[in-house]
Amino acid sequence: MAPPIRLTVPGTLRYRGIAVRVVAEAARLVSGSIPQDPNDPLAYDVRDPFDTAVVSAFSEIFNNVVIHAYQRRGGGVIELAITPGARELVIELKDHGTPFDLDGVAALPSELDEASLPEGGMGIHIAKTMLDEMTYEPGPPNLWRLLKRLPVASGGTNTGAQARGRS
Amino acid sequence: MPNPFDVVRTDHEITLTVRGSLDINTAANLAEEIDKIIATKMKRIVVDLSQLDLIDSSGVAALVKLYKGVRSTGGGVTMSGARDQPLAIFKLLRMDKVFNL
Questions:
Q1: Which of A46, A55, A122 lies closest to B93 in CB terms?
Q2: Which residues, 6+ apart, have CB-to-CB distance to B3 below 8 Å?
Q3: Residue of chain B with shortest Cα separation from A128
Q4: Closest Cα partner for A19 from A77, A99, A105, A76?
Q5: How far does Cα B3 stand from its chain's mean position?
Q6: For residue B14, pLDDT beyond 50
Q7: Do A123 and B57 touch (CB under 8 A)?
Q8: Domain boundaries, chain B
Q9: A112/B93 Cβ within 8 A
Q10: B68: nearest CA in chain A?
Q11: What ipTM was assigned to the predicted interfaces of this complex?
């Protein structure tokens, strides 16, 4: 297996776009997705379901680190280790800020209607639901580990780049 | 960073078109515009999401704020055109049915 792709960015929202683009490209290494429009001004492709899940989940956790660990004040870094495998993508985010109380996150209402529409607290729910595995080890350093696997086609075949004979 | 939205006002309705990425970095500007839209007490608000490529929970929160704010003044919000990643997020949060997406 190739060594992880490592990227260290300041723990502020200013660097969010760089991190998301790197993660999106790593997702495409696994999914084998092709940009729909090479002239698309959006630098990351999020139409493939695998890419969508990875980018959505990562974005929420990056936001969480900036907001909760570094309390929007920066002053620290986020260390990313991104490991694209043949059938899965693992992303680790390490920060040196305030630990996050993951167990204290309230669940979304089981029955959603106009009155119960939430205006916050959705990020962790999005990340957890989009991923196959999400773990958090409070520190410091605090460590998030995100894992997304490619879906297996009905015939048991990997649907990603490996199945298409790509490496 | 350019605003990812346009607002067109007529005598009868306000149309909000959101494009590109509505995320934690861009939602704050939209929230300011949403306050202005709610303050008009216009009865019909149309939100066009067909050009929206990416959304995060901050962007969703902004649209929920718009929906609740307009409804609280007796108006209605029609959202349409959500696709790809934004539609996946609305479905995951089970908001697609509330918003009739």
A1: A122
A2: B26, B29, B30, B33
A3: B92
A4: A77
A5: 13
A6: yes
A7: yes
A8: 5-98
A9: yes
A10: A114
A11: 0.91
Nearest Cα residue in chain A from B51: A42
**Distance to chain B for A118, nearest Cα, Å:** 7
- CA A35 to centroid of chain Cα atoms: 19
Work out how many CB contacts closer than 8 A connect A with B. 77
When the candidates are 3.30.750.24, 1.10.540.10, 3.40.50.1100, 3.10.310.10, the CATH number that belongs to B5-98 is: 3.30.750.24
Instruction: Enter the pTM of the model.
Output: 0.90
CB A162 within 8 A of CB A87: yes
Q: pLDDT tens-digit profile of B37-80?
A: 999 999 999 999 999 989 999 999 999 999 999 999 999 999 99
CATH fold for domain A5-109+116-149: Heat Shock Protein 90 (3.30.565)
pLDDT in tens, A100-150: 999 988 888 777 888 788 888 899 999 999 999 999 999 989 999 999 999
Q: Residue with structure tokens 């918003």? A: B99
